[in-house]
Design goal:
This protein is of the alpha/beta class and 237 residues long. It has a single domain, classed as Rossmann fold (3-Layer(aba) Sandwich). Helices cover 29% and strands 27% of the residues. It has five helices and nine strands; from the N terminus they run βαβββαββαββαβα. Strand 2 and strand 3 form a beta hairpin. Helix 2 packs parallel to helix 4 and helix 3 packs across helix 5. The radius of gyration is 17 Å and the shape is globular. It binds hypoxanthine.
Length: 237
């Protein structure tokens, strides 16, 4: 294909599977490949954004880091979809809870992703696009979480441009007031890219900290919650 390798991904044609897991951290991608995949082969190291393809229970699956924020996941997911033929893109990450009922270590599936980013404004649509996940992937993920007895929530999340967000001006409506469960930084851009290309995307997130209580997870707790999420993600990939 004329467009590959891309400026950001050095894989050759056919080296990336149709289903790909997308953690933000490239070292997490390496850990997943080494821990959960059989016969994993590295396909990317450009900018240290490590990517691997291997097998999970006989199914060919890839995993690659995305970096943080809409700009970064926007680049990688665009190239994976348009130039490498990826069809199922599953973001696996962490999020900060915005609600009392969404607790540390629990799993959140982003059915919709609100955003304060300009990423989708650059699509020049005549109104506001509602970024949503693939229903098919969501249904499979919910079934897998139920089967494994993992606590999960399904609903709206916020994909923010800013990790260190400013307090809202007094009296303004908050995302929490609108029922938004948790904040992360990538899902909306991923959902918009997938929508334009007719691909399937889902963001699944473990709650690493709470914006309500100020709690955060220990690295040990994060690891257990992460393994739960990985089992769900790999079973639907
Ligand atoms: N903000 C944005 N992204 C995050 C957060 C947060 O509080 N926690 C984990 N990912």
């Amino acid at each position: 294909m004329a467009n590959i390798p891309t400026p950001h991904i050095q894989a050759r044609e056919g080296e990336i599977a149709e289903s790909i897991l997308l953690p933000g951290d490239p070292l997490r991608a390496k850990y997943i490949a080494e821990t959960f995949l059989e016969g994993a082969v590295q396909f990317n190291a450009v900018r240290n954004m490590l990517g691997f393809t291997g097998f999970y229970k006989g199914k060919r699956v890839s995993v690659m880091g995305t970096g943080m924020g809409p700009a970064s996941i926007g680049i990688y997911s665009y190239e994976l979809i348009h130039f490498y033929g990826c069809r199922n893109l599953i973001r696996i990450g962490t999020a900060g809870s915005m609600r009392e009922d969404v607790k540390i270590k629990e799993l959140v599936f982003g059915m919709g992703a609100c955003t304060d980013s300009n990423y989708i404004k650059n699509f020049y649509l005549p109104g506001d696009f509602a970024p949503i996940c693939s229903y098919e992937l969501l249904e499979k993920a919910v079934n897998a979480a139920r089967e494994k007895g993992i606590r999960y929530h399904v609903g709206n999340i916020l994909s923010s441009d800013m990790f260190y967000r400013r307090p809202m001006p007094e009296g303004s409506l908050t995302w929490k007031d609108m029922g938004v469960m948790a904040v992360e930084m990538e899902a909306a851009a991923l959902y918009a890219n997938a929508a334009e290309a007719g691909a399937n995307a889902l963001a699944m997130l473990t709650i690493s900290d709470s914006l309500v209580t100020g709690e955060s997870t220990s690295s040990e707790e994060r690891q257990t919650a992460f393994t739960d999420m990985m089992e769900v993600a790999l079973s639907i990939a």
